[in-house]
Amino acid sequence: xxxxxxxxxxxxxxxxxxxxxxxxxxxxxxxxxxxxxxxxxxxxxxxxxxxxxxxxxxxxxxxxxxxxxxxxxxxxxxxxxxxxxxxxxxxxxxxxxxxxxxxxxxxxxxxxxxxxxxxxxxxxxxxxxxxxxxxxxxxxxxxxxxxxxxxxxxxxxxxxxxxxxxxxxxxxxxxxxxxxxxxxxxxxxxxxxxxxxxxxxxxxxxxxxxxxxxxxxxxxxxxxxxxxxxxxxxxxxxxxxxxxxxxxxxxxxxxxxxxxxxxxxxx
Length: 267
Prior knowledge:
The chain has 267 residues and is α/β, with parallel strands linked by helices. It has helices at residues 41-52, 90-94, 98-113, 133-140, 168-175, 177-186, 192-198, 210-223, 226-239, 244-263; strands spanning 12-14, 17-22, 25-30, 60-65, 121-126, 129-131, 143-147, 151-153, 190-191, 203-205. The model has no long low-confidence stretch (mean pLDDT 95).
């Protein structure tokens, strides 16, 4: 798949992650297609750094993977006894005390959390394999546009692990508890048609049209007034934790802020 961000000077380019910025649009690209964009702790740290490096002008962030796969999950070297040089092995992690192990996993998760910030809208452009950590990274985004060859799967359970890179909450929110459990426990593939029907993806398009579809969606998002989008996203993100009446009140408060802002009236 072509790299629409390659003509731009990268803000960040390290450990399999490249960040470019074109005014209000940022693109984060996974850049190791030879390994199907396999993930490692170094990549997770680079993803977190990309989030911290976003200029304030950015409104939409596109996440994409070079090559035929979005991301095929964890680097297989992490499952070997020697692990990845410079990183703790699974055995070493298992021997850490609870607080230290919790802190390590929390650091890994930081690369997956910033995509839902209220001040941006994030879009994952997903083709080919999005397995395990790759599935969870796509789930970290607000929206997913998929190619018709997409293959989502949550394989952690089959390895004796659990999904721990922040994917379980959005998965349940999108498809419901029962289907989320079935997807995770069986590790089966979710293909394009089911992804759209279940709400995992907004739309599925032919592989060759994926970049164009994402550009069109990004353009539509950028056409809306920024503050209205920010307020609306905050309303929708908080809706699941509010009662109906609490959400009504939140709507009133948000609208009051918008009306005062548009009228130039201070609160």
